[in-house]
Amino acid sequence: MSTATLTPAPTAAPQRAGASDAAPGSQVETMTMAAALNRALADALEEDGRVLIFGEDVGALGGVFRITDGLTERFGEDRCFDTPLAESGIMGSAVGMAMNGMIPVVEMQFDAFAFPAFEQVVSHVAKLGNRTKGATRMPIVVRIPYGGGIGGVEHHCDSSEAYYAHTPGLTVVSPATPQDAYSLLRAAIASPDPVIFMEPKKLYWSKGPVDTSIVAELRQAQVVREGTDLTLISYGPSLSVAMAAAEAAEAEGRSVQVVDVRTLTPFDDATVMDAVRSTGRAMVIAEAPGFASVASEIQARVFEQCFEYLEAPVRKVAGFDVPFPSPKFEHWNLPDVDRVMDAIDTLHWEDAR
Predict the structure, then answer these.
(1) What's the pLDDT at 19?
(2) Which of 4, 91, 141, 146 is the Cys-Cys partner for 105 at CB 3.0 to 4.6 Å?
(3) Is the pTM of this model over 0.85?
(4) H or E segment to which residue 207 belongs
């Protein structure tokens, strides 16, 4: 397995509404998403001796993307350590540790590298709490760098969130800003139940304000841009596309609202549906292939719960239903502003252009 360092090109992070509204006495710092994740891990290690961080190359190297940089040096090899290249063994060890009172935070080096551990996640991590009627909890966080936009090859750029979202017993989270990266990871580590924490690789070097005093709600979507004509619904790596498309649509006279789902499951129907009802039009934007996806589930839920409010069909702009292409062609597969704007034009506007 690769241990080379891949450095995504800097990407502008969408600004979180209210992210700079610091709590009294707090100090807001501008940092990258990678630094925010590192800070969240360090703060969790500092505050709770039960927290352990382990995975492939997370120790001395600090991880392929340097998310765990300096943690072994600061907290010791018994708190942040390397494992063999065996994802199933990593996850099985986490299950045993969680059963014995520890809080494992494991890193899967790349999205598709996590597949050998999938049986452990589905059969044990997701089910032990229910199987034991709550007597055995699984406070495990599985960090998975995912998505494209970094010029990586297959097995390094998958969007695998639907596999986990389909599995009852798992909370699946994907931050889109440095603030949410910090706050949601802290909330995930504090959760008594398992969290799959999907980290958009292309946003690791995006920058934004981070207030470490903010406590996130794990299961709450957010309206990150107000608008009256259309609601764009997105998460993780595609939220920046939604925000850029909203800006482009505003230049054409459309007032576009943007909702960041943040937690894919359990899904925050209330926030998303209220947003859609307020505009009467909706579109879902996601990087993963569109068939049987998180995007198609959101699309279906909007149809079911908001049908009488809709002025047009709910559109979906997603990755194509193909294996992830080579770096030369990945830009054709990933949703972009042009594809979103073309879809916006089909939403039955009275002033059709």
Answers:
(1) 41
(2) 141
(3) yes
(4) strand 207-211
